[in-house]
């Protein structure tokens, strides 16, 4: 019984972070709506955008407090390490729900967290309160279209068969990428882009005792500190080196994923045990300072606590959850 209690307590380590991240949602939405209404009286779209990005930075910095500082995970960076803020499209392999956090992990190190935008699967646009807000964002792309899960052998097999039928290289540790989102994003934003970041992510501890790759950690598992290290390899590709014609871009994108696959084969399957669990080349252990995350946690936590201390505040809090979710779903359904 004692063992069961210990295991239950350990598994509940994600409850506090989840409660804070979700619990501050109405506060964040109300603050954003307040600014949105006030911005109608402020001249210039640039001021609105700067403050809107700042609001987003505050919330995402709080999220990173839990995913980095709270978990104590080590972030190991390889390749073309970002040195300054750029306008980019972020292309990554997709394994789990933590993947979108990885984009934030890189962005905060460039002081660009407020500018991160996402291409989401349709189902994620129905998230309470945040779904509509996230559905406006279009920069981070996972070209595989769905998560790579080594336990879903039918999905992997179908992807490999399709690649073979199309005369493309068959991939082992990633799925065959889809071109549509990447092509549309690049075509629409090429005049504003500086580069594409081709990012390959590997979660340490995702190999079983037999050496077989297993499923990447869920958000709950990650927050329970079950992933000791995240390895992130970055290739910076100047936009002039990306083909603009769709068929050529399709081949280029598959070639990029073939490079990812080779990196992951080295990480998971290298016959040399000294070369496993890391990517080739030099790396740095990048630690995120509490100065970048703790103030956001205290700010949003304090505002939420202040709201909940009064009866009128509690009523507003609950109404924001209810009506915000309903209105958000209606807006998404109208767009669909």
TrEMBL record:
Q: Which GO terms describe its biological process?
A: phosphatidylinositol acyl-chain remodeling; phospholipid biosynthetic process
Where's the Phospholipid/glycerol acyltransferase domain? 88-183
Please indicate if the UniProt record lists Membrane as a keyword.
Answer: yes
Query: Which ranges does the record mark as transmembrane?
Result: 12-35
User: From the Swiss-Prot or TrEMBL record, what is one GO molecular function term?
Assistant: acyltransferase activity
An annotated GO cellular component of this protein is: endoplasmic reticulum
- Listed InterPro entries: Acyltransf_C, Plipid/glycerol_acylTrfase
What UniProt keywords are attached to this protein's entry? Answer: Acyltransferase, Lipid biosynthesis, Lipid metabolism, Membrane, Phospholipid biosynthesis, Phospholipid metabolism, Transferase, Transmembrane, Transmembrane helix
Q: Which family does it belong to?
A: Belongs to the 1-acyl-sn-glycerol-3-phosphate acyltransferase family.
Instruction: Quote the protein name from its UniProt record.
Output: 1-acylglycerol-3-phosphate O-acyltransferase 5
Q: Which gene encodes it?
A: AGPAT5
